[in-house]
Design brief:
Elements: E1 2-11, E2 26-35, H1 37-42, E3 48-52, E4 61-64, E5 67-68, E6 73-81, H2 85-91, E7 98-105, E8 117-123, H3 127-139, E9 143-150, H4 155-159, E10 165-171, E11 178-179, H5 186-189, E12 195-199, H6 202-210, E13 222-225, E14 241-244, E15 247-250, H7 251-254, E16 257-259
Parallel strand pairs: 8-9, 8-12, 9-10, 10-11, 12-13
Antiparallel strand pairs: 1-2, 1-7, 2-6, 3-4, 3-7, 5-6, 13-16, 14-15
The chain binds flavin-adenine dinucleotide (FAD) and FE2/S2 (inorganic) cluster (FES).
Length: about 270
């Protein structure tokens, strides 16, 4: 884990139209690229960084590593929340500004040696860590199918389509791709996949956990990345502790990636 002060290399245009069915609303989403070779070198898909936002934010904010490149840049893709102090601050950084952060943190996705065909299921902002996983596994020669579900069309995600990834989109308003929820499409791809990875809202995970038979997920292992409120991000405060079938676990240190079946979803009090 490295603590660094990175400089902002690039910022994406704000992407509007994202909606969340529960909880905080999103003003817009945005990418930011930071020069931090110390973190880029060590980063693994599914890991995250803690960003120290302005002085008003006492606690650092967790963000998944979205992309890394050979020049030592780390990109984040983040939602700017209504009344969100940290995400608002981050969205106002300009090229050349300094941003303090530490990472990479947590345990990311684990890919079995003999896995060739990977199914990635992203809901909304869940694309952030899964795109990093897609890029890294394509480099290793895996076949990647990415199911992306969103409320309304997200041009940024469509622009990410690099050669090799099979991208299937579902929108709740029917503006592009399948009209409905991305989990409706899961049964068509399960038999193809050697391994399944997911990142999205709690509602998507609860749906997957409750409808295992319907979604053809019975007997399948699904690695999910949990987005939960965190304070320290490094195992000190116990604020992110959850109940699992393997006992109490700290999401920041033992996760954020867990097996779908290990989480006691009824005991998890997050929306
Ligand atoms: C491992 C992990 C990876 C994440 N990756 C991403 C990502 O790639 N892109 C993205 O848009 N968001 C991501 N999040 C959620 C992101 O951390 C929150 O949206 C952000 O912290 C909100 O900060 P704020 O200051 O704008 O909101 P405020 O409400 O001002 O923050 C208040 C406090 O609550 C915490 N908090 C509030 N909402 C959340 C939440 N949903 N999840 C976690 N902590 C929260 C903050 O850390 C902070 O301590 C991730 C969360 C975790 C745990
Ligand atoms: S956030 Fe402090 S222990 Fe996990």
């Amino acid at each position: 884990m490295k603590q660094v002060v990175a400089s902002v290399i690039a910022k994406g245009e704000p992407i509007t139209g994202l909606v969340r069915p529960h909880g905080r609303s999103i003003r817009f989403s945005q990418t930011i690229r930071l020069k931090c070779p110390e973190i880029a070198r060590e980063a693994q898909p599914g890991q995250f960084v803690m960003v120290c936002c302005d002085d008003e934010c006492v606690l650092p904010r967790p963000f998944s590593i979205h992309r890394v490149n050979d020049q030592g840049d780390v990109s984040l893709y983040f939602a700017v929340l209504e009344d969100g102090k940290g995400t608002d601050w981050l969205s106002q950084r300009q090229v050349g500004d300094a941003v303090a952060l530490f990472g990479p943190l947590g345990n990311g996705f684990s890919i079995r040696q003999n896995s060739q065909k990977l199914l990635l299921v992203a809901g909304g902002m869940g694309i952030a860590p899964l795109y990093f996983l897609a890029e890294e596994t394509l480099k290793k020669g895996c076949s990647v199918t990415l199911l992306y579900g969103t409320a309304v069309r997200n041009w940024y995600v469509e622009s990410l389509l690099t050669s090799g990834i099979k991208l299937i989109i579902a929108t709740e308003d029917g503006s592009v791709g399948y009209h409905g929820m991305i989990t409706d499409l899961l049964p068509d791809y399960i038999d193809w996949a050697d391994q399944i990875f997911a990142c999205g809202p709690m509602a998507m995970y609860r749906d997957m956990a409750q409808k295992k038979r319907e979604l053809k997920l019975q007997g399948k292992s699904v690695q999910v990345s949990l987005e939960i409120v965190m304070a320290c991000g490094r195992g000190v405060c116990y604020g992110c502790t959850i109940k699992t079938r393997q006992g109490m676990k700290k999401v920041c240190q033992d996760g954020p990636v867990f097996d779908l079946d290990d989480i006691l979803w009824d005991e998890l009090n997050q929306s």
